[in-house]
Records
---
Amino acid sequence: MSDQFFKQSTVYAWQQETWQRLTLRFPNIGHGILLYGKKGAGKKDFALHFIAWLLCLDKKTTAACGVCASCQWLKSNTHPNYVHISTDDDKKQSNSQIKIDKVREIQPFVQQTVEGWRVVLIEPAETLNTAAANALLKTLEEPGERTIIVLLTDHLLKLPATIRSRLQRYALDRVSTEIAYHHVSQNSPDLDQQQIQLLLNLAYDMPLRALELAPQAWLQQRQKFIHDWLSLVKDKNGLVRHANTWTKALTFVELCQMMQYLVADMIALKLNQQIKNIDLNFSDILPYYDLNTLFKISHKLQDAKIYMQQNIQSQLMIDDLFVVLLHL
């Protein structure tokens, strides 16, 4: 993680305004900062860049110096004035939580008197359980001197209102279409205009998420999947064959992600809304499903992701999904 503090010479283009607001006001920026926005907005990149700057002993306009004692400590992951709190689960499963013990552990840290600034990073903040959130609230109400607590979240409203009200909030997902397009095109010059627009659609206009999606195996398999899906519902047979084919073609997570995007677009079409998969034609498959059935499939896909975290065999879940698609 330590290398990530210095991977950028400056924050992303869409984060410049927030950077200016924070750095120009420093040290009068409050002791609690909440950075929020959609996945792919670069919240953690911004946070680490900013934390390095906060702790730096020779701050530059756009970044930490990278050479002072503080920066060297960050690079070696041994900084005595920095604490990172996250869930115990490296995979950040949907049911993972930040528990009260972790929040209690930082209370002596934020109250001690030391030279320089102290920084705590908590992410993802929405995973704080009730007890941990209450403990954090007390810490926010009685902060130590020269202490800054930074929280990151994809879901602002999942944080308790009492926590939100005590934090300076900064949205990092305010990305213009032009800036998002430029960032993707600069970092993936081989993509044409339609491909970039498709990726941004699927990424909800978040450029970093779009770049993450670009190499995904399922992206090139969508049309073939619709073809097999149509064959399944038209012929009313071949369920096992199709399920086995896609078990081999994609991982369960990839298959679920692809299906979620496709089903969401079919729901959008039923509601006369714009779709994200602008390069696909749903006209043949759409008549086989009503809106209620599509919502049921969508919920089934959400449930499948939860079951996967419980170590249920993926083959069984894929078979079950294809039964749902067959609309039996």
---
Amino acid sequence: ANNEDHVEYDDLDDLTARHRRARKERVDSVSDTILEARRLHLRRIRDFEVDPETVEQLRKLGLGRRKQPLDNRAFTKKWLNNKQVATGMGAGGFAVHLGSASKDWPMFKHNLPEVALAGHTNCGKSTLVNALAGIHPRQGLAGVSERAGWTDFVSFYQIGKKPPVLTLVDLPGYGHAVANRSMQREWRRMTKDYLSGQRRQLCRCCVLVDATRGLAEEDRILLAHLERRGIEHQLVLTKGDLLLPEQLAQSMAAVTQDLMDIGAKLLAKPPILPVCGHTGAGVTALWENMRTRSLREPGSLVSSIEAARRVREAKLEKDRLKLQHTRTR
């Protein structure tokens, strides 16, 4: 059913202006193909029903364009006494850059479960790395730029503290970038090599999709590659603050339909999670989802420590009962 009478839709010029105002998006970082994809997506989502329940859930998460932008003071913005300040966002503000590489993927002291972030250039991967760590998007360890194609290595970030929970892997983006073709080919090679299925620590790949343009052809290719390799994957809808809540709900419905059309098998639950790394809306829900998933992996320090704690408690309880039995004799 058409919802034009219920939702005041924006045109492409309005959306482009918001990208430049809210994200400082550079003109050379947006191709005509991207602009056309945004225009077609805006037109297409009008034909999807607006689900009131989904809209309400998005509003509760702080997602969807608002008259007054969300206050993102929940992020860590500074250090106190040379120590990171704990926050209630994501992993609490604790992250360590372990290193970056273009091949021969490194091994680290803690063999933690790895969650990879993949997606189109300028879809918000590095911003989301910082947000998941609980660090202000522009002051975190992952470099963020308005320039498409800023991430030019595979970067590894240890997230969480005492014990660290998982390693986030920031992959180079695919698609349009301010870089020559040979460099773009090299980025695609890095992503393909890392997602070859040989990295034992990799437990999930999050495919980031820009909510303002929907599923791109490169996203479909990546999803097919992940399925062939048997890599668990989840779709994360980014830039959740640039569309109205009703439009964001319709964008989710459109992407869900696209996934059904291509027969994608997203084993992660829920299969699609909307977020905004810029404001932090929806980020804690995504972090808890990642954290819960990583706890099931053999390399999880959190699970190992928890298991050791349970063993100690069981032994103490056994000793207590034994002592109690001795006293009653």
---
Amino acid sequence: MTFYFLGDDNMFLLSKINISTPLLHISSGKFEAGANWKHKHMFHDGNFEIIIVIKGTLFLKVDGSKIIVEAGDVFSLPPFHNLEGYQDSPTGTQYFWIHFFNHPNGLKVYNLKAQDNLKIENMFTKTTCMLPLKFSLPNTDKSFILSNQLLDVVRDSYFTSLSIDYLLTELIIQLSNDYFKTLAQEEISRKDARISLIKSWIQANLSESLRVTDVANKFELNSKYLVRFFKNHTNETIIQYINRLKIQKSIELLVETNLPIKQISSLAYFSDAKQFMKDFKKYTNLTPSKYRYAYTRKFLDSSNFDPEVPIDRNPL
């Protein structure tokens, strides 16, 4: 996900919207850009605007900061900001647009200096929605359906405006829920990427003397935090992972070479042959010698089978 920052102070704009009572719909619609069109200049004097791009691209400028909004993106602009297009959009660009009022004290805008997914996730409550200046929908179906339903209700002129306000509030909840999902998924992806990087480094630097502190120092992490982080995401400790890599190395050498067991233990980065024997049996339930015999025999036996010779299913 891309986080957008505004102004000279490099601040991330995040809106906290109170939904304990329905939001107040002002106007809404679906727009399609013609040739040589760009968004006109507007100043949002007290009203909030949502743009959901259906197709094409919007080139917007908020208080001088440029933002590109593409198909599947949601643009959420709180009150008291200048908005204008800085470049023509492709012909046929379509988007939903919605203007609404928050209730008194029903909106708080945060200017965060940095991206902090966990902090933002903790801002969500049963009566508050969180929306950034821009984010990408993980799935557009529900938001597009609700947007079309909102426009349909507006056209039908219900006897009470609450029908529109409740549907608008439902749409805001849906958008906020989609944003929450992107935060959670990004955090999972970020952690997965870090685990992958740690594993790759361990594989590349596997040695007899490799310790947890070496890994922690490489990634500038506290050793206790690293052990906990790694175990929570892999279900094994770093030491278990290192030992498993060593055992896998020894298995390759046992099956593919005729080297002595003691030499294999050294080549697999074990400092002590007795410890190697103990760890090997723990992981495979066999001693290295029995493992070599069993799997070498299996390989030799299977090599006698010729896949090109058909099997006679009705031997005489």
---
Amino acid sequence: MLSSIPGELGGLGKVQILRLDGNQLTGTIPEALGALSELKELLMHHNKLTGSIPGVLRGLGKLEQLWLNGNQLSGSIPGELGGLGKVQILRLDGNQLTGTIPEALGALSELKNLYMNDNKLTGSIPGVLGGLGKLEELWVNGNQLSGSIPGELGGLGKVQTLRLDGNQLTGSIPGVLGALGKLEGLGLSGNALSGPIPKALGALSKLEILVINDNKLTGSIPHEFGALRNLKTLKIDSNSLTGGPTRGESLDSWRARLRQQEQATEREHPTAENPAVRTSSSTQGDKPGNPDGATTEPISGSSREADMDHMTQVQI
């Protein structure tokens, strides 16, 4: 049985899939693997690999999947990974990576799943990630990221799960997130976000899970939330919010009350723009199963076989 990855594997010039996952492999990732020019899948997750991620992996021009999660890798994420032009799945989660998220990752135009959660990453979330038009999953939770949520993330038109929870993010929740029409899970809990909840989030018609607890949010829960018919899990506790369900009030009754309040407001102001469909950054202030092997728990309650017209979990 191998105890480390032999550099001689770099001589397998025609190999397209290399799976070394789920072993007890130790040591570092050999730079010789950067010579595997035909490689499409490199899976080394769930081992005990240490050291840094070799920048020479950028030479894997045909690579579509790179799984390095669940190891003990350290150092920064090499910007050279931005040269993996065909990669669709990039998993770096569950390591000990430090430093900032390289802006070079914004060049990964084919990327669908990006997991960098449960590391020790610092700095801000690069706005260039909002240009990843094919991205469906973005997980950066469980780090030490700071600064505000970039409004550019509102350009992730295909994203289904957006997890920014468990960081040190500040500022308000950008109203442009209301433009994420395919979003099913939004996790923002455990930060220091402030200000009101944007009314524009009421336009997220596919949203099933909204977790924004443990922040510094203020104001009322928007009436527009009454339109979130697919919402099943709502966690808004440990903020300074008002307008939640009253004692003994069912969730269905609460949502109906929100809809009635919104309709009353529209009757009083018939010419007013509906803030639930606004998507520009001016609206500021007005999903998700767990990926295989991720060390953070899923946002919770994501069963999609349940009746989608009822919320089943709520924390106020």
